Amino acid sequence: MTKKVSIIPCLDTREGRVVKGVRFVDLVDVGDPAEAARRYEEQGADELVFLDITATIEGRATRLDIMRRAAAGVKIPICVGGGIRTVEDMQELFDAGISKVSISTAAVHNPGLIREAAAKFGSERLVVAIDVRKFPGEENRWEVLINGGSKGTGMNAVEWAKKCQELGAGALLPTSKDTDGVKTGYDLPMTRAIAEAVTIPVIASGGAGTLRHMLEAVTAGKASAVLAASVFHFGELTVKQVKEYFNNHGITTG
Which residue in 46, 89, 131, 187 is the catalytic one? Predict the structure, then answer.
């Protein structure tokens, strides 16, 4: 494998703090966003993803002051998601030093936002996050969720992924609610199904518990990057350990 795989800590935020839950609930406070960003940069993270997980539900924008402080303390790219509804919201984040934005619910409600943002800022600055769960009784079909994973849409996740690419998304971030925070491994069939349906990078998310899980996301899941939260936040693994493990298995990291 010659492509470089990115290792990306994910920092869910609520009320200005980094939190982590299981299956999108039971949130625990794990620290200050700016301090966490600096720590992960020191470990060798290729980029960071901040998701304001209650912004959409609460009908508000991402807290700019917190993101500005986090971005000011590091040199690696930061991607921010949560409560982003317009290109004006995106512009505010870019002006605050953020490198990329991630949209999810807003993209489902207004797919044209993907095209508008890609045209204005470039596809490379736009990630579409796709929260999913298995359709009941089906092993290989996944439903798109919105509002922080709390509401089903009836949409097929693989078809939506293809649509997002057509509209101009630069990368996709699919997260399985079935595996999120459980640390039993990523939803590999879902990740692979989306990765095989598109040509843009797919970031594996939701369920990393071991080094082997992360490796499988790339080898079996065909992801271009691996994102994790719990194992990093609680000190079970470091970014450096993941990179060394990947390199020992012939995979070049960013």
Answer: 131
Domain boundaries, the chain: 6-248
**Residue-wise pLDDT tens digits, 198-253:** 999 999 999 999 999 999 999 999 999 999 988 998 899 999 999 999 999 999 99
Task: Point out the catalytic residue in the list 12, 89, 180, 187.
Answer: 12
Backbone CA torsion sign across 58, 203, 170, 90: positive
Q: Is pTM, for the whole model, over 0.70?
A: yes
User: For 151-208, what is the HEC assignment?
Assistant: EEEEEEHHHHHHHHHHHCCCEEEEEECCCCCCCCCCCHHHHHHHHHHCCCCEEEECCC
Does the active-site annotation cover 46?
no
Q: Which CATH superfamily is domain 6-248 in?
A: Aldolase class I (3.20.20.70)
